[in-house]
Amino acid sequence: xxxxxxxxxxxxxxxxxxxxxxxxxxxAGTSTEVTARxxxxxxxxxxxxxPGIRLLRFAEALWRPALLLAAxxxxxxxxxxxxxxxxxxLPTPGQVWETVIEDWSFLMRNTYVTLYETVIGFILAAxxxxxxxxxxxxxxxxxxxxxxxxxxxxxxxxxxxxxxxxVWFGVGLAPKxxxxxxxxxxxxxxxxxxxxxxxxxxxxxLSATMGAxxxxxxxKIRFPNSLPHLMAGLKxxxxxxxxxxxxxxxxxxxxxxxxxLLLANGNLDAALLFADLFLMSxxxxxxxxxxxxxxxxxxxxxxxxxxxxxxxTS
Length: 314
Fold this sequence. Notes:
The chain is mainly α. It contains 12 helices and no strands. It starts with a helix and ends in a 16-residue tail after the last helix.
């Protein structure tokens, strides 16, 4: 038996040696096939087509809202041009555009004020909301103490407390920023708590067994897993911050788009009113796109950010 095993081993070694040294035979044919395959041009990876594909997808996603917006503008122009409504109630798109050109510096100055209030209010709401969400998610005691107060503050109409904020903080930027924070704060807290509590408990237990502390677990596991929920709340909050800033400008303000809106309404200047409304909408859209881009950079791994991933069972 030992002699047979030795003979078998020697035979295998000789076979391997002949396969590696002999240029002909079965192995030679295999190497020829490998050489032929390596000589073929590589299959296209699709990288060269990515910009074109992205452009096509962008156009495909854009043409429907663009078509709807064009139909709305056409109906608006038709109603105003045919005189179905008087121009002091519904100006034509051309009249609105002329107002924007004539009052450009005035509108841009007030747009900057509202944009500044909105951005500062949104940043403060995001920071305070995330901190509150962490306290609620990590402590049941803090949840029972803070959550009812947060809910109570949310259900109070913000326009009702705007005069009180003006009395407390004056007629400057402070009451508008505070109002923007109060309106944008709630969705950040709710989405943050939902995201922090959606982390798989097994991942938390695994990090604990591997010696990770609470801070490292939060930084490596809890916070990254909460980003999809948190970014959804931030996209809602950034649009509500615009509303909060404008509502604050309705009371005791001498600048900002809310002030321009009151001025146009008092003078029955419909063209200025429409131009002001478009600028308000533009601020909200631009800030929403900024948060959307931040979401794409922060969580490219999420299913909602990947193309070709089925999100439904149909």
